[in-house]
Amino acid sequence: MGDIKNLINKEAIVKIQKLATDVDITMFCTNLGGKPFSTCPMSTQQVEDDGTIWFFSNKNSDHNKDIKSDPATQLIYSSKAGDTDHLSVYGTSEITFDRAKAEELFTPMIKTWFPEGVDDPELTMIKFTPSEGYYWDTKNGQMVAFAKMMASVVTGKEGMDDGIEGKLKVN
């Protein structure tokens, strides 16, 4: 089993920045009290130094409607093939529009969904503020972790990846 290392404030924010930026796509979960809760893939546009995460969103989307009813949001990131880094972050979301921020973050790819650019009437932004979460950060990647697990089956000795995991708390 890996080490447990709980992170608070700045250390937690740095971990969120690294994992959310490396992974990019998150499962953006709203209506957390519903069964099933609502989820959709969203592209992370930016993670600021205070932990705020920015997304672009259509003003008529289901997740925008959910956020207006209840801002509680869960983000679930899982790393690309070859790694086994994962992040689950809970916090609150706010539907907003900051023109300067939109201009800063807008890319040609975003124009696929918002053809009129930052002036598109359907364009909104989601400002996610994290409060807590959990991360799994493997030290050696998926292949090494798998090899260690297989060796433990053969030898009967513990052989889990020596990664780190822990709780995140942002005040």
UniProtKB/TrEMBL annotation:
Originating species: Neolewinella antarctica
Annotated ranges, domain General stress protein FMN-binding split barrel: 12-158
Gene3D superfamilies assigned to the protein according to its UniProt record, in alphabetical order: Electron Transport, Fmn-binding Protein, Chain A
Coiled coil: none
InterPro entries: Split_barrel_FMN-bd, Stress-Dev_Protein, YdaG_split_barrel_FMN-bd
Any single Pfam family the record assigns to this protein: Pyrid_ox_like
Protein name: General stress protein 26
